[in-house]
Each structure stands twice: as structure tokens, then as C-alpha cells.
Description:
three-stranded antiparallel beta sheet, about 25% helix
Amino acid sequence: MAYITSAALEETGYVVLDKYDREMDPREWLDIEYNDWKSSGDTRFAPLASAKGEIECNGFWNHKPPRTDKDGVWIDSQTAKAPDLTRRAQEPGANVGRCRVIELQPNTYADCLYNLHQDDNNRLNPDGTGWVVRGFFNLTDDKDSYFVLRHNRTDPEGEVRIALPAGAQLIVDTQRLWHAATHPGDSARYCLITSWESGPELDAYIEKYNGVNHVESVAVPQDELDAGQAEQSRRLAARAAALAARGQAEKLVMSEA
Length: 257
């Protein structure tokens, strides 16, 4: 058997949906409770759904009994403050695992490349069931920010850079693609991230909102791209050397975030 996957994601590993065209109340992401949980930069996370309905961000496999990133339990104290965000996460009708708002502090393209990671969405996921992917709904109007997707962490060939204005909506197979955000703003970026199980419900949602699996990359000056790539190489080499000095090898593990 094989996992149930979405045909729309098969070619590139991502789809971009129609821009969300309704105004959101910032209190929905500013008034909820955050955990100081680090992933892909200087971040905090505010869970709306977690393994047991508690305000924590751990992978579902770290709980007892361990399980995959499905059947998340909604957190009443959080969803009461963020009803529209909750409805957006539930709209596809697909099984939801973790659902959280991320707060990302400003960073650079070089920071983003250093923080590129893959997610461990499908640990313990039974064969023959839906493959877990993630939806990203940008909440703040980050006109100069963009999401970076790569098939290879250190190879810029085929890199895709997706713009992140308010209302940007994308779905990504984040276990397949290396990803992180470049956010050169002067205030935090907020984004709703939802783990969804692939299947007919998610397929219908992608079709309803005209998902496309090819977009034009955000234009970035070549010297900035080159400098970012060089800095990524420098930082990774420095990290590997520091680990080697301690008798350790770098582990390219998937992120639990």
C-alpha cells in the first residue's frame, strides 16, 4: 500500500491558493497564549490544537501513547479568542493535527537559508492513510517577506520564493521540501500553520480556491542571493566544525516544529 496524497502537490510539492480577501482582527493572533518554541529562527508558537488540548507544542509522537500528527484536540481557551482562525483551519474538513500561530522576528535571507528545514509530519503515520501536509496562512502584511522552498537544503537550483502579503495562502509538503521564511521587516510576522491529512476533502479545498503549483519567484538581487548562499555555507561549515571538535557529527534531523 501507499499513502493517500494530493495530486495537486505531486509535481512541485506546493500549491498557492487564492488570496484570502476578508479582513482579520489582529487580536485573534495577538491575544492568544504563546510558547517560547524555537523553529527556523527567533520564534514563538501559539497552539490552537495540540495532542491533548494543552498549550504546548510537542510532536504528537512525544506523548503517551505516541501517535502521528493527526486528530489534534482543540484548545478551548485559545479558540475562543481566535474563532475565525479556527474556522479557517477547519474549513477544508480534512483531519487536523497540530494547528498553531507562529510569531517570527525579523531575519535576513542568509538567516532563512541557514534555518531551512524539513518537517517530520508523518512519523508513525500508518501506510494506506493520508499523507500529512501543512497549510500556511499569512496573517500580517509582510510585503517584503517571502517563503523559500528548496528540494535540496544547500542547492539553490530550482529555489522558489513565494510572496507573503496579508492573505497569502499556501499548502506545502514540508516533509518533502526544505523551507523557511525570509522576513526583513521591523516587526514580527504572524502566520497560521495547520497540519492537514491529504485526501478528497483537502483536494476539494485546493480546487475550490484555485490552487496552482507554479508561481513566479519573488525577485531578489543576484548579489543578495549569492551572499546568502555563501553565508549559509559558512555557518553550516562552522557548525560542523564545532560539533566535530566535540566529537559529534551533525544530524540532519527533521524538525518537530
